[in-house]
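## retry 2 of 3
previous attempt timed out at serialization; input unchanged, resubmitting
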Amino acid sequence: MTGRAERRGIRIHRRPTLSTQQVTRRHHIPVTNPALTIADIRSELEAPQWRRAVRQAEVLGLRTGLEASAPTRSELEDRFLALCRRHRLPPPEVNVRVGRWEVDFLWPVQRLVVETDGYRFHRGHAAFETDHVRDLDLRNAGLDVLHLTYDQVTNHSSQVASVVRRELEADRNAPC
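## retry succeeded, writing output
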């Protein structure tokens, strides 16, 4: 790097040429656009980290021209799928439509829906009301809905797996 002192923890990547479409400005500093930045870091990150970067860019409304190439939409969903594999739970359908709703995880035969609810996307009055309208619609369609938080999935995985397994094994046709 000519003319600049190295700083610990900062790695500068330089490209020999950049088109004007590949450059944008952030706080008046010229930087590569989100699509090129994410493409550049792909070789530096493990697949789950890269998918998370793509998802974060999408949440911020940044165009990447890329897909995270996983059926999940969040780190929490990734963690829940890993929990299912680790505890040998049957694999669910991921991010599927049920009526007018898209649910995080569905076991159609067992009529079970699992929603992984991160606080960032499920806080506030509007989200609260929408979540409850969705739950009522899903229950009216004969589905049981289980909500799990980040803390439950990450710090209480054995308990979560036990509850999900019990729900999957429940006879939903048995009289109350």
